[in-house]
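chain below, 294 aa
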Amino acid sequence: MLLKESISRKIFNLINFIFLSFLSLACLLPFVHVLFSSVSDPILLARYRGLVLWPMGFTTMGYKLVAMNPHIVNGLRNTVFYATAGTFINIMMTSMGAYVCSQKKFMPRNVIMFIITFSMFFSGGLIPYYLLIRSLNMTNTIWALLIPSAISAYNLILMRTAFNEIPDSLEESARIDGAGDFSILFRIIIPVSKPVMAVMVLLYAVGHWNSWFPALIFLRDRTLFPLQLVLREILIEQNVSRIMVVANSGDQTNLYRPLIRYSSIIVSIVPIICFYPFIQKYFIRGIMIGSIKG
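prediction:
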């Protein structure tokens, strides 16, 4: 028999609904503003002040200019590579580390977990980090963006917790059949851990896609720049005129500069937004799996 909701419960639900509605609106409005600004007429856009909640005129010139920009196209290609290769390395390294640390018969696992947890709170700092990468001859190479971030301590702890919840009988049965550690990990543990693996893929992929600071520090070759670093030049350094000449007239370049910025932002965020729905059903479940037990 269902009990009627109390008045206090109804008030709580109403306040919760209003709060989450405002929060959702605050997250949605900037995206709507950038999206509609990217297809608005540049003259009307230059005269308007405030949030753009509808297209003012219509033009795709901003996206055409972005598609003509070799730096943006090359940056997008590099970012796709960094996100794909980096996520693959992350998943492989994190899953192997989590598997080792989840083995109850592996005696040093508590010491290793302490060291990993310690690294979450204390680091050597930016200068020793740069000196280390330079001493390994990885500056101005793609490896400076892939190897140092191969494992996230938080994600390893999350994955280890999920692996601990898998029944020991699965592993014992595999060992009886003659399976080794790699077979157990890649044929049993990872396939039955799809929710947490999907969460790891999302977290690592988004991290690589949005990363720009390591590239700013370690890369000097513009052909290796990720998209976010090119976007930073457009947005912060206001370097549109150097990156792309819209026309011979400087006034026309200034006119199209906001359009190029907005279009570049949309180009940089749409791919990762399209990627998210495919693993959305695993996301909350995967987070909850890793948060039940320590």
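The chain is about 70% helix and 0% strand. The chain has two domains: 12-59, 60-289.
thats it, cya
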